[in-house]
Amino acid sequence: MTVTENRPWRGVLVATALPLDDDLSVDYDGFAEHCAWLVENGCDGVVPNGSLGEYQVLTPEERAKVVETAVATIGGQRVMPGVAAYGSAEARRWAEQARDAGCASVMLLPPNAYRADERSVLAHYAEVAKAAVPVVAYNNPIDTKVDLVPELLAKLHGEGYIHAVKEFSGDVRRAYRIAELAPELDLLIGADDVLLELALAGAKGWVAGYPNALPAATVELYHAAARGDLATAQQLYRQLHPLLRWDSQVEFVQAIKLSMDIVGRHGGRCRPPRVPLLPEQEAVIRAATEKALAAGLA
């Protein structure tokens, strides 16, 4: 068994955007084709039903079918769905659904309906761990207002509740503290625009946004950074950073979907409450995407 098979969250796992038709219905065939295309272009797997996949505005039936579609297309070993929910019981049910669909791991936010304290966070992950599928924590204190600081991550890992963490705080210093407190806890890059810094700090994977539009170049960037090939990595990072930084903006879903449309993929619209980009935002993203295309990065 390879390391990736044993720890399927390692490598480049794409937080998949969900293609929607003009009537805002889910294009499941398009999503299946997108998952296959990402793997064909070097990505190791997909993370459906994250924020980029607009899980908050899917019906339960749609959310389940998204997972089943990904598994049927590329195999459960490559699929790590987001199982976030307001309640721990519901999050556990989504973890069980993913497990039963054949997924090898799941990704879980802390409680995000309120500013949870440490005891609540521990109880939340303990409950979802009962689903008996490996859990990757997702630390996004910007959106959830709950910060999985290194000390808390070490506790969660020490209890056996989590195996890795998608780190979205943007604070690259945490990589070294996490490694000290929980050396067996895998650190995953959580924001596209700190990829180089966290890869050099020892990250074992990347839960990625912009490979939805530019998989080959972004995968090359990740692998160059992970092996310490700074000459290759820095050049690609500079070329791609005007796009990568959108992954940390409020409009990241709209931005990535627009870039997908420009490169000939099907991004499509977003469901409300997300609204279309402002003309000036669209112009910046369009120019950066076309520049990447001209540079042969697509």
Automatic annotation (TrEMBL):
GO terms for molecular function: 4-hydroxy-tetrahydrodipicolinate synthase activity. It comes from the Bacteria. Belongs to the DapA family. Pyruvate binds at residue 207. It comes from Streptomyces montanus. This is Dihydrodipicolinate synthase family protein. Keywords: Lyase. InterPro entries: Aldolase_TIM (IPR013785), DapA-like (IPR002220). The lineage of its organism: Bacteria, Bacillati, Actinomycetota, Actinomycetes, Kitasatosporales. The active site is at residues 138, 166.
